[in-house]
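Re: that backbone. Tokens:
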């Protein structure tokens, strides 16, 4: 898992770095997009502002032109009134007319000239002396219209000046006699310097344009190169080309053909005067502030971009440092995991768990092995209280003193106690602990708990083996001693028994002497049987073994036992056929007889049952002899196989029967076990190595 985890971690780290780079690039792209969007919006706003300015200034120019024309019209109306006061010929003399013209023209300082043309179309008088006398004006449009009967104020089309080549804008008024006949036309010419002064107040910039036009001609024009005045040779096509709005009112964006400057033009048509007012705002000047703002935005974008790049670099560096720290942490985690695995394995092998008790919070922490020792699931939450419920009542006081000693700040000696698992099993555990001090006081207790059940069982088995070895050594010594005594005693009994039997043959039956000698013979026979048992117990030669069917052997033993057992004792045989062992038949026969006889004696005069069972399983043949007698306590059970140990009264038992049985079983490579409780009877289990049947016919158990 380690290499795959590392490669997976590296891939995740690379993906994160790529994500950081993509994030930085995305932020820069977003800033760029926002900059472009802002610049576009600002440019559109600047152009919209310039358009609004051009439209507003064109309205102002329209209003100013209307006011100027209205003022000139008033002067013309007053002059026409004075001229029609008299229809006499002397009143229309040039000198008198000129005086009237001068008196009325002085009321408007921006009038360039005020002239009167007679009904025949010839110049009668003018405020300008340089005008040629008797100049013919009859061809002018405004004159023909007035002569035809139009009485209103007319602003004619731009026409060449009679004095210069400049184009002038005539404003005319019909003059009638008192009787209403056509007497002539008053014509006023505006001084264009009036318009020029007003144009300067509009503040249209260095590249702006202001103009008045009539029809196809430009009446007055203010250009950025300083040229101004009347342009008789400039047509409206030089200002607008073909982009003039159809209604003659509004704004449009176009390049001025006259000077090639890109402008936003505001145009207004002055109704009744045949004039149009034009104000042009240079796009370059309108975008000047936008360009400054764009530079500022670009600087801000550059600073932000550099900041994002710097942050991205810092982030990548931080990620690199974090990756190194993560790798170090991962390596430390792997080492910690390996250490934890080693610790877990060590605890599992040694069956030792660790625990910690926090004295401040009262919380108990267990290692995984603790749960296994106590047989509890991992969801179990240990506390001091429920731990005390798992130990026996007899050890709880010692366990409290054990913990109190650790709380006091000392390391108590280890303590052993039994715990009860939820499944009912009991385990022997050894606990050790030591205090954790902080500031001179105990804040926690840490310790270990080791399952020593198997160790204690091994120690008990070792002690049992040692006891059995000591028992065997003692029995060997006793056997040697008993064998020597038995040989000497047997030699001493031979003449006693032989001579007594010879004397008995010479005595008549029923005599007192014969009865006494029979007692002697009976005692000598018992002594001879005792010597035989001693010799059997002390015998060292290897028995003669051959395949023996234990079931058939029980049949022959029953023939001997059924006459010797009391009638109150019932013998129940449960034997499996084919249970064969390699044994000495006579010794095995002696084992069965001794065990059944002892069982019957344990029942005594009461009614009882002796159950003899033979079973073969697991490569062993088990011979069990169970009785319903009085049973044995622990003290008697511990010494039951000792030679010469008996619980029978003096003269009724030798204490060699079970010792001989034990010697025969162990001599055959088997083992004998005894289970007994007072009042519950006794069970002897003999385990002998089974022999595979090799052509031997098992003896049926039809003797039961």
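Recovered sequence:
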């Amino acid at each position: 898992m380690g290499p795959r985890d590392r490669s997976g971690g590296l891939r995740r780290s690379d993906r994160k770095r790529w994500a950081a780079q993509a994030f930085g690039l995305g932020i820069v792209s977003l800033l760029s997009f926002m900059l472009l969007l802002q610049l576009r919006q600002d440019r559109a706003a600047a152009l919209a502002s310039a358009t609004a300015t051009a439209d507003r200034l064109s309205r102002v120019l329209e209003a100013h032109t209307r006011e100027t024309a209205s003022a000139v019209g008033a002067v013309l109306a007053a002059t026409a009134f004075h001229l029609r006061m008299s229809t006499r010929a002397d009143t229309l003399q040039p000198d008198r007319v000129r005086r009237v013209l001068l008196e009325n023209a002085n009321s408007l300082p921006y009038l360039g000239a005020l002239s009167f043309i007679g009904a025949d179309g010839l110049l009668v008088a003018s405020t300008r002396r340089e005008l040629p006398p008797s100049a013919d004006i009859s061809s002018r449009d405004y004159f023909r219209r007035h002569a035809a009967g139009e009485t209103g104020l007319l602003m004619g089309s731009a026409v060449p000046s009679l004095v210069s080549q400049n184009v002038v804008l005539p404003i005319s008024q019909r003059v009638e006699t008192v009787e209403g006949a056509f007497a002539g036309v008053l014509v006023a010419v505006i001084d264009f310097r009036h318009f020029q002064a007003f144009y300067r107040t509009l503040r249209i910039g260095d590249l702006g344009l202001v103009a008045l036009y009539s029809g196809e001609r430009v009446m007055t024009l203010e250009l950025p190169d300083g040229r101004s005045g009347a342009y008789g040779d400039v047509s409206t096509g030089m200002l607008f080309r073909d982009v003039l709005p159809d209604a003659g009112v509004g704004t449009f964006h176009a390049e001025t053909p006259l000077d090639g400057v890109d402008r936003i033009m505001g145009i207004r048509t002055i109704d009744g005067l045949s004039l149009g007012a034009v104000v042009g705002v240079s796009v370059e000047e309108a975008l000047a502030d936008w360009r400054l703002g764009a530079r500022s935005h670009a600087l801000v974008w550059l600073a932000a971009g550099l900041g994002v790049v710097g942050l991205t670099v810092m982030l990548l560096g931080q990620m690199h440092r974090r990756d190194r720290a993560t790798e170090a942490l991962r390596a430390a985690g792997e080492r910690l995991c390996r250490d934890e695995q080693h610790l877990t394995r060590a605890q599992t092998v040694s069956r030792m768990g660790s625990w910690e008790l926090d004295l401040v919070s009262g919380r108990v922490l267990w290692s995984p092995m603790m749960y296994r020792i106590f047989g509890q699931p991992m969801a179990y939450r240990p506390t001091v209280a429920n731990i005390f419920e798992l130990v026996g009542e007899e050890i709880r006081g010692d366990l409290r003193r054990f913990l109190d000693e650790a709380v006091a700040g000392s390391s108590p000696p280890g303590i052993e106690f039994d715990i009860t698992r939820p499944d009912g099993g009991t385990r022997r555990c050894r606990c050790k602990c030591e205090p954790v001090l902080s500031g001179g006081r105990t804040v926690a207790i840490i310790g270990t708990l080791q399952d020593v059940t198997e160790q204690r069982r091994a120690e008990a088995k070792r002690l049992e083996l040692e006891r059995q070895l000591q028992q065997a050594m003692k029995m060997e010594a006793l056997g040697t001693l008993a064998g020597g005594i038995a040989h000497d005693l047997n030699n001493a009994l031979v003449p006693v028994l032989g001579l007594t039997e010879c004397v008995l043959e010479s005595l008549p039956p029923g005599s007192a002497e014969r009865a006494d000698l029979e007692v002697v013979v009976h005692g000598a026979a018992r002594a001879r049987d005792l010597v035989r048992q001693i010799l059997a117990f002390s015998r060292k030669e290897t028995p003669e073994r051959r395949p023996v069917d234990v079931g058939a052997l029980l049949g022959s033993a029953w023939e001997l036992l059924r006459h010797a057992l009391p009638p109150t004792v019932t013998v129940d045989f449960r034997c499996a056929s084919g249970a064969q062992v390699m044994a000495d038949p006579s010794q095995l026969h002696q084992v069965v007889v001794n065990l059944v006889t002892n069982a019957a004696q344990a029942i005594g005069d009461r009614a009882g049952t002796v159950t003899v069972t033979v079973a073969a399983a697991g490569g062993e043949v088990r011979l069990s002899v169970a009785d319903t007698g009085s049973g044995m306590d622990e003290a008697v059970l511990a010494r039951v196989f000792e030679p010469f140990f008996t619980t029978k009264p003096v003269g009724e038992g030798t204490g060699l029967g079970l010792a001989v049985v034990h010697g025969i079983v162990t001599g055959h490579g088997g083992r004998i076990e005894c289970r007994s409780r007072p009042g519950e009877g006794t069970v002897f289990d003999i385990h002998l190595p089974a022999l595979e049947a090799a052509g031997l016919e098992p003896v049926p158990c039809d003797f039961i």
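DSSP finds 16 helices and 25 strands in the chain. Residues 2-83 form the longest helix (82 residues).
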